[in-house]
Amino acid sequence: MTKNNLELSSSIEELGPWHLVVDVRDGITTQIENQKHTDGRMISQVDGKVVFDQLIGKLYPDGLAGKSFFDNACNCGGYSFWAKEMGADHTFGYDAREHWIRQAEFLRENRAANTENMVFKVADLYDIPKMDLPVYDITWFSGIFYHLPDPVSGLKIAADRTGELFYLNTAILTATEEEIGDGCLYITKEGVDHLMTGVHGMAWFPSGPKVLTRLLNWVGFPEVRILRWTKRVTKDARPSRLRKDVGRISLVAARTPGMLAGIKDAEVEERREHKWR
Fold first, then answer.
1. Can you give the pTM of this predicted structure?
2. How many separate domains does the chain show?
């Protein structure tokens, strides 16, 4: 039974917190002010539709009719829904957390837009090889790389199911000293209880675009472009001490050389901060 707008808004509140801002219908979205996790920490909200539409619109100017879309760590399925809006024939999204898949199923059932041939599943990336999945034209790999205990194998699992285009968005951990260079993966521990962490308790942060480009080349994508690259540069009172600062990077990779000819590498955006100890 279709929910009225009051019931819809109430259900959105009950299903919170939400990370992606997605339109549902009649001007109602998943955006909730000052939402918190059960441990009291804030949950950030991201509206990525405009950036998604711009990128896909540039690479697929005729839309995604006949294309398939593979959404890794799909959260509430936002990118899958936006791919469907652009004409994708079928989509498959999975996430290790049941919380996000409940949201995705809710949106699939209640959005005004077409949601046919959309599948969502609670699953871990490392379980994907056990599933009978096809090769997808487009793979979205956003916010998952730096939560993986073995990101190289994880990247290959997703890449092996990609026919044309691979999008990668990840946090990075960049050493400020020039002699360190960009060719590292930094190991770190993380909790497993918060909705915005991984589920394995160990993760790896890449140092920047060079190491990621080499990995993408290795898994079969000869052409790679940097879409956005930001890093925080901290001036420390003790400059001789090794400092690593968190940033963010997004890249797009193609199986076929020439597909990304219209996209230029973005320059690094530095956010400078001072930290005195």
1. 0.91
2. 1
